[in-house]
Amino acid sequence: MTSHLPQPAADAPGTGVVERGSAPAPSAARARVVLYSDDVETRAAVRRAVGRRASRDTPFIEWVEVATPATLLTEVAAGGNALLVLDGEAAKVGGFGLAREVKERFFDVPPVLLLVARPQDAWIAAWSQADGIVPFPLRPAAVADTVAALLRGVPSDVPTPTHP
User: Fold this and answer.
1) Higher-confidence position of 121 and 70
2) Do residues 60 and 53 touch, judged by C-beta distance below 8 A?
3) How, if at all, do strands 60-66 and 83-87 pair?
C-alpha cells in the first residue's frame, strides 16, 4: 500500500517547482502535488494561489507540473503523491475523465482536486470521484484553503450525483 505522506524533495531555484531528477533534501518533509493542465497560465495561477505552502499546518509543496494525460498517468503510477490537481477544462482530455480513470485504474490514489468552469459543474466532479473542486475564476484563498484541506485529509464539498 502506497503512503501519501509528504515525500522529501528539493525545489528548483526560485520557482517552487521541482524538476524530474532533482536531488532530494532528506531533512525537509514535502507534499508532492501533481498539477495537470495543458494551459501554462492555469498551472501558474494555481501555483501562485497556493504558493510554497497551502497553510501553516501543512507541509511545503513540491509542485510537479504535467501537460499531457500520459505524463499524468505516469506520475500517478510512480506513486508518492499527496494530491492531484486536475484542470477540468483542459483541451482534448479534461480533468473530469482523467480523475475518474485514475480513481478506477489505480489503487490507493491520493485526493483529487478538480478545477471546474462553474460551480454548477460539481455534479460531474462527483461523477469523476473528485475529492474537491474549485471553480474558475480561481480565487487564491479558495484554492489554498481547498488544497490545505485535502492535504490534511479533510474531504471538500463535492455533492453525490443523483440519478433521475
Assistant:
1) 70
2) yes
3) unpaired
Look up cell 483542459; give the residue: 90
The number of residues in the chain equals 164
The three three-digit cell numbers of residue 152, written as one number: 490534511
67 in Cβ contact with 37 (< 8 Å): yes
**Cα–Cα distance, 48 to 16 (Å, whole number):** 10
d(CA 44, CA 60): 17
Amino acid at 113: L
**Average pLDDT along the chain:** 83
Q: Quick one: which of 69, 51, 68 has its CA closest to 60?
A: 51
How confident is the model over 151-160, as pLDDT tens digits? 998 766 554 4
- Measured CA to CA, the distance from residue 158 to residue 105 in angstroms comes to 21
Distance of CA 91 to the CA centre of its chain: 17
pLDDT of residue 154: 73
- The Cα 46–Cα 35 span in angstroms is 8
Distance CA 156, CA 164 (A): 24
φ/ψ of residue 48, rounded to 5: -65, -40
State the DSSP H helix or E strand holding residue 143, giving kind and residue range, or none if neither.
helix 140-152
